[in-house]
Amino acid sequence: MLISRISYSLLLSCLIFACKPATEESAKPVFYPWEKYLTAQIDSLGRHPQKVQKTILLDGKKEEKQLPTIDWKQEWAMFLHADLNTPAAASAYDNLSEDGFVWYSLKANENLDVKKLYIQLDALDRPAKVEIVIDEKNFLFETHKKLHMNFTDGHVQTYSIEGSQQMRWMSPTHYQLMGVLLAK
To answer: Residue 100, CB half-sphere, CA atoms under 13 Å: how many?
Structure first.
């Protein structure tokens, strides 16, 4: 009796799982594969390191330094997180793209952090210039960030992150980071 119940339960479970539709593992991205492209840049810089000239401005105070090595994944984390190929973003953006550029703008009724992703393409359809606008707002703080990246021959040459953060009941903090990849 117990064996027949177990067999029946097992058979029922198999039928339920067999009737589920197959999910497509490698669904084609809806948006430009920005994260994939930038990850390839990071991998290339890992194999062929370049020095970086960094300038940081924080509330008017300037600091400059030249770095022989850098953790690119950490340095460009904000750029990587701006990838729109996520389930939440699938229908949240208007595609304003035309020949020579890719432009996604957040729809008015949507509430995601990335407000705009603009990619100017070169003649080989590689990024030449990227601009990303990110706004975050909650009960404790409000931030606004503008990210820029410039490419030559499909490789990053310069990047910048400019922004402000306003904590509730505090003065706003303004910051800017600029990086230039130096030839060896």
So the answer is: 0
Look up tokens 């340095």; give the residue: 75
Segment 165-182 mean pLDDT: 91
> In Å, how far from its chain's centre is CA 139?
24
Please state, in angstroms and as integers, the Cα–Cα distance from residue 136 to each residue in 20, 43, 59, following that order.
38, 29, 20
CA–CA gap between residue 129 and residue 120 (Å, rounded)? 5
pTM recorded for the entire structure: 0.81
Tokens encoding 155: 């490789």
d(CA 117, CA 135): 12
- Measured CA to CA, the distance from residue 179 to residue 53 in angstroms comes to 6
Q: What proportion of the chain, given as a percentage, has pLDDT over 90? A: 69
**pLDDT score recorded for residue 28:** 56
